[in-house]
Structures are given as structure tokens and as C-alpha cells.
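Quick one: co-fold with phenylalanine.
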Amino acid sequence: MKMNEIRAAFETEITNCQDLQSLQELKVKYLGKSGELTVLLKSIKDLPAEERPSFGAEVNALRGVMEARFAEKTDTLKALDMQRRLQEEKVDISLTSCKPLGASHPVTLIENEICDLLIAMGFEVLTGPEIETDYYNFKALNIPDDHPARDMQDTFYITDSILLRTQTSAMQARLMEKRQPPIKVICPGKVFRSDSDASHSPVFHQIEGLVVDKNITLCDLKGTLEYIASHLFGENTKVRFRPSFFPFTEPSVEVDVTCSNCGGKGCSLCKGTGWIELLGAGMVNPFVLEKCGIDSKKYNGFAFGIGMDRVAMIKYGIPDIRLLFENDQRFLKQFGK
Ligand code: PHE
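Sure, here it is.
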């Protein structure tokens, strides 16, 4: 009877037991040195000799049952405990991946691409100030105060003699004043002009290229530009020179490439001509060389200025330059992943 009571009480208690700590206490209560079952077993001495073996066997069987139940309950509670801790101590790793991943701006992509190409050709990359003097931006480049060429570029003046550079060409004189040939550099950077519509932005980006050495020809310029164009727009891209005018180059050329959209057949992007105007270039004007202290009888060179925004627009089919500067994520997301 006593044994049945213990069995029943044990069964209720272990079923209701919720944590490992109370389970341990329960184990002591039933199976410990002075636990219920131990005490019960000790009472064997009060029984008549013939009942002892079966009583002993029954108590031991119950002990076996209890031990098995404890083992099983321990496993269950441990599993529950682990589950609870996993819940409580959960680190929400999804949080970081919720942050939008940055991507390179299309102009940055073009800048990197062109710089990589030219670095591979042995050009050095240099950058110069965006706030520039009238001297480097204009005068040193053979554009005196009253020169009509100043009207080609609507300038943001800070004072009479300080301005936001309108062209990376401003780096030409800065460089040539300091160095003697051979010079082989590119200068990427922002330039500024007071102009704004679908194809003009008050801030845009150019890469200036300058090579000064002995026996440089227009052919070297063309070869360099063909190399850049074929890498940017595809192997079959052709380059053509049209006569143009810049005060700091003589002769000067406007450089066109075959339209990457139609391959030169004529489409809406190239306005049916098959050609797209890409950049200005020319042979460095001897006047500029001399002004910077380079002997124009010994040395000559070429220079070019690529508008990177324009390249990005052609390459990625961007219809309006202002899209590049609005920082609309829906637009920016499409590039540089
Ligand atoms: N600086 C000129 C421009 O901004 C481009 C140019 C660069 C032309 C170098 C000739 C040589 O339009």
C-alpha cells in the first residue's frame, strides 16, 4: 500500500515538475539517502522473512522505474531549457543584412575603369584643387581676360581671381611648371560651370590626360583614345577627329566615337549620325609649354579632357545627366553591384 502511495505521489510530482532544479530536489526526496524509497527499503527488516524477497524485488523495480523517469525527464527539461535560452539569447543576425548595401556610383565606375586603363599604359594619377585661380584655369592656358573663349565656359567666380575650376585642364600648367618632361599623367576630378539642363549639370566630372615628351604626334593621341574607346564601348568602336578650337591646344580636335547603341548605323541616341561626340583634345599649344618653362623646340605633347558623366550616360543609356546627382536610390541601385 505504502509503495503504491509513493508510486502515485512520485508520478504526480514528476509530471508537474517544471525545471531541473526541482527535479534534482525530487530525486533527493525519493532516491536520496533518507529518501522515501530508501526509507521504504529499510522497513524490510520489519517484514516477515518470507515476504522480504518479493518486497525487496518490488522496491528495486520501483527504483528502476523512477530512475528511468528521472533520466527521461532530465532530457526533456534540458531540451526545454535549451529552447528557452535560444529564444531569450537570440541574436537577430538578419538585422545587419537589412541595411541596404552600398554600390559604386556610375561616375565612379567610369572613373575607375578609365584610370585602370591608363594606369596600365603607364600614366600616373594626380588630383588638383577644385577651387582654382583664374591664372591656372584660364591665363596659363592661353585664355587672357578678354578672350572670347571665356564665354565657352560659364564660370562660378568666388573673387575676381579665384573660381571653381571649369576644366581639369587647370592641372596642365600646375604640373608643367613643376616638372620637366617626360610627363604622362591623368587628373580626374570635379569641374563646375553655371549651366543646367538634361545634358549639362553645374557640377560634372572630367579626366584630363597630358603627355609631354619628345616626338609626340597626333597619332599617339589617336592611338591612346582608340584604346580607351574600344575598352569602354567595345572592340569595334571607331574614333574620328574633327577640327576644333581650344586656346591651349594646337591643332585642336573634337573626338567622336561610333555609337555604341547602333554600332554606327544611326539611331535616336546618336541622332541618326552613327557618331557620338565624346571629348576635346589636341596637341599642347607651344605657348603653354613655354609659359610653364618647357622648351617647345625640344618637347611637345598631347592633352585630352574626357567628360566622365557623358561616358556614363552613353555606356549605361542614362537619358538625363541630372539623374546622376539626385541620389535617388532606385536609380543608383542599378549600378556597381
Ligand atoms: N578642357 C576642355 C573642356 O573642358 C577639354 C580639353 C582638354 C580640350 C584638353 C583639349 C585638351 O572642354
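If it helps, The CA atoms of residues 121 and 224 lie 9 Å apart.
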